[in-house]
UniProtKB/TrEMBL annotation:
Keywords: Antiviral defense. It comes from the Bacteria. Residues 9-287 form the CRISPR type III-associated protein domain. Transmembrane segments: none annotated. Pfam families: RAMPs. One of its GO terms (biological process) is defense response to virus. This is CRISPR-associated RAMP protein, Cmr4 family.
Length: 296
């Protein structure tokens, strides 16, 4: 059967820590970033691991379905191992929440991010939306675009950066594209989305993240044994990934082709919630998730 493609979007509802491990920099535990852009990301291996962990909890009486979708366990004792029936990409940034003097916070994105989204959804056969990015690409320093009905106008102050906001129908088209891709109950408001220059977006996603000091207490002395600084992505961060489902590589009466693999993946995310990244025991990493598509 022809492979089935899907788009998975995530909207953070708690802080996210897609960690890289310890570094020697100022922040001891930074988040994952693309090496060429500096944009936040979540590696596909960790994303797929989070999906597998959820599948093992939900399908604990159907372990064969877990192995069919995700492949044999690395630490298992199976003699006939096989790969999983779907692949998934790294989760990329889609829009980033930044505090504002006017609207508490707004979502910012940039032409480069939207161009990548358009390319990616065309790749999986979701369609090619007619969005003219000429105006967004022509943004000059200290300019930003908002939707035509947005309350954002005139001077917009985001962190330490000022923008002159102009309403533009290009943003209307972007909002029209994003709204059905995101969970309808998660609270995305397209009137608070602004498209800013690529360089300013890169600055904000690097320096407007949360950096928290954390300590580990000694049970006996009640003093700190360790102090470290940890970076997280704020709630309301929007990310997306692509999933490609194909025919199973192992026999399974319940999952026999790519279409049924896609249906099973859809069922896994039916409750709309997924925990990804580190610090699960302190309530971090929870997202509203939506899977879209259906075209082959």
């Amino acid at each position: 059967m022809t492979p089935q493609s899907r788009l998975i979007t995530l909207q953070a509802i708690t802080f996210l820590h897609p960690g890289t491990g310890q570094t020697t920099g100022v922040v001891d535990l930074p988040i994952q970033r693309e090496v060429h852009t500096g944009y936040p990301m979540f590696a596909s291996s960790g994303f797929k691991g989070s999906l597998r962990d959820k599948a093992e909890q939900l399908w604990n009486k159907e372990p064969d379905n877990v192995k069919t979708l995700f492949g044999s366990s690395v630490n298992g004792d199976e003699t006939n191992t096989s790969a999983g029936a779907f692949s998934i990409t790294d989760a990329r940034i889609l829009a980033f929440p930044v505090r504002s003097l006017q609207q508490v916070f707004v979502w910012v994105t940039c032409p480069m991010v939207i161009q990548r989204l358009l390319r990616d959804i065309e790749l999986i056969g979701y369609g090619k939306p007619e969005i003219a990015l000429d105006d967004a690409l022509a943004l000059v320093e200290a300019k930003a675009l908002a939707a035509t009905g947005s309350p954002l106008k005139d001077l917009l102050i985001l962190e330490d950066v000022n923008f002159n906001v102009t309403a533009n129908k290009t943003v209307d088209a972007i909002v029209e594209l994003l709204t059905p891709l995101l969970d309808g109950q998660a609270g995305f408001d397209g009137k608070r989305l602004v498209v800013i220059p690529n360089d300013d977006f890169q600055h904000l996603v690097r320096y407007a993240t949360q950096v928290s000091a954390r300590i580990q207490l000694n049970d006996e002395s009640k003093t700190s044994d360790n102090l470290w600084y940890e970076e997280t992505l704020p709630p309301e961060t929007l990310m997306y990934a692509l999933a490609l489902c194909h025919d199973p590589r192992r026999g399974n009466d319940q999952i026999q082709d790519a279409g049924q693999v896609a249906q099973k993946l859809q069922a896994l995310l039916e409750d709309r919630f997924l925990q990804i990244g580190g610090n699960e025991t302190v309530g971090q990493g929870w997202c509203c998730v939506k899977i879209s598509g259906g075209q082959s």
